[in-house]
Amino acid sequence: MEQLTLPKDFFFGAAMSGPQTEGEWKSGGKLENLWDLWSNLELDAFHNRVGSYGGNDFTRRHNEDFQIFKDLGLTSFRTSIQWSRLLDEDGNVNPEGEKYYHELFADAAASGLECFVNLYHFDMPAYLFRRGGWENREVVEAYANYAAKAFELFGKEIRCWFTFNEPIVEPDQRYQNGVWYPYLHNFNRAKVVQYNISVAHSLAVAAYRRAKAAGLMREDSRIGLINCFTPPYTRENPSEADLEAVRMTDGINNRWWLDLVTKGELPADVLDSLASRGVELPIRPGDAEILAQGKVDWLGCNYYHPERVQAPSREVDESGCPVFAEPYVWPEAKMNESRGWEIYPKGIYDFGMKLKNEYPELEFFVSENGMGVEHEWDFRDAETGVIQDDYRIEFVREHLAWIARAIADGANLVGYHYWAVVDNWSWSNAFKNRYGFVEVDLEDGYKRRLKKSANWLREVTKTHTLTVEEGK
Ligand code: BGP
């Protein structure tokens, strides 16, 4: 067995988002967001027909959740402000939305928890989506206005700010792979969205720096970006074409964002490759200067699974989208069958080493990591009623072990937020896969109940030590 230690100042916390927890979807002046729009349009698209409306009852129970976080030894949590709650259709502040977040942040502080605030978690206000969403540059400007208002209103309350969570996901899920509404299969439109989100991020960072210079922000505040990162892997003894698939996957998913947040530019080789395949980005004169302002103070890395790719067998798919890589199924892959994601804890270590080597100045934390499991009630102990989620203990232990090894080998990795400490609503999967250390009982008014893993976590946050099998 191997004993591993995490540094004393390494922090533990909870990752969550506004649209997946708050509920109260149309009270307090909140406008419809894209999830509400989709739920209203097509409830059958959601697991068990559970739409966006309820979240996990966080609005009514947040003080109870804060006590749970404290009890488990967590010191921070991240949520997101919902754009559709904070502003009205004219881009002015909704006073009830403002009050909602002031109260939430005050309650967090009173509980001794630090709240990290993200500004966007896949939750475009519906009226802006109807105007073209991220494809429309006016919506990019509207986001910059929203970000500036948020800094002005909450700048003295919040230290850690993030512009976006996983900006790669909406281009993929909504515009390219047709998984989420509006179910498009259009590579060019996906890359337009990716480009415009990059501009929006940069405008928000610029607004943040202006607000800070004007004395509106806490002196110790900082701004970052959160994305899902994994170094792409390929087969053993790869061909040149396999390595080319790795280059483009790494380029679009990782380097695009890493170059933006460290160098204030997008990777030229990726832009060239996209152009050579006919992709037209809506680049405007002056954009280079805007992107140059996109550099951040630190980074959040969401890590659930590795990306394995190989050379594509075709140049374009049935929808006419260029194909740069195809999935490679590693014969030794261990799967989380509920979610269909490979479990590969060492990926966190490899990403830490990638940053250390390629972006050595950049500090980061693991901003999401977790295991969603279906039918967890099958694991409920008949006598105590406690869910015996040993698989989750193993999952988190092995990921933390690779985090400890990455830190020992020089990664600038400072903390860990688990997704989701309390079960929450997972987009179109709704409550199918449960992630929590804490169960939410939908049959009993969203009642919270600790799972076995919660008691394990409490020990780890207390001792900062882990015992794992050698190399696991
Ligand atoms: C990340 C998102 C989260 C969360 C998580 C788990 O990509 O940032 O919002 O949902 O994945 O994924 P899922 O809920 O789809 O199982």
How many strand elements? 18
Structural Rg: 21 Å
Tell me the helix content: 25-40%
Secondary-structure class: alpha/beta
Number of helical elements: 15
Order of strands, widest sheet: 2-3-4-5-6-7-12-14
Sheet with the most strands? 8 strands, parallel, barrel
What is the mean predicted local confidence, pLDDT? 97
Any ligands, ions or cofactors bound here, and which? 6-O-phosphono-beta-D-galactopyranose
Summary, kept brief:
This protein is of the alpha/beta class and 472 residues long. Helix content is 39%, strand content 16%.
Describe this structure in words.
This protein is an alpha/beta fold and 472 residues long. Helices cover 39% and strands 16% of the residues. The chain is built from 15 helices and 18 strands. The chain has helices at 18-21, 34-41, 58-71, 83-86, 95-110, 126-129, 137-154, 169-176, 187-213, 240-263, 268-276, 287-291, 346-358, 390-408, 452-463; strands at 2-5, 11-15, 76-80, 114-118, 160-165, 222-228, 298-302, 309-310, 326-327, 334-336, 341-343, 364-368, 373-374, 413-419, 433-434, 438-441, 447-450, 465-468. An 8-stranded parallel beta barrel has the order 2-3-4-5-6-7-12-14, surrounded by 4 helices. The protein has a two-stranded antiparallel ribbon with strand order 1-18. The chain has a two-stranded antiparallel sheet with strand order 8-9. Helix 8 runs antiparallel to helix 9 (187-213). It starts with a strand and ends with a strand. The site of 6-O-phosphono-beta-D-galactopyranose has 15 residues, from loops. 6-O-phosphono-beta-D-galactopyranose (BGP) binds next to loops.
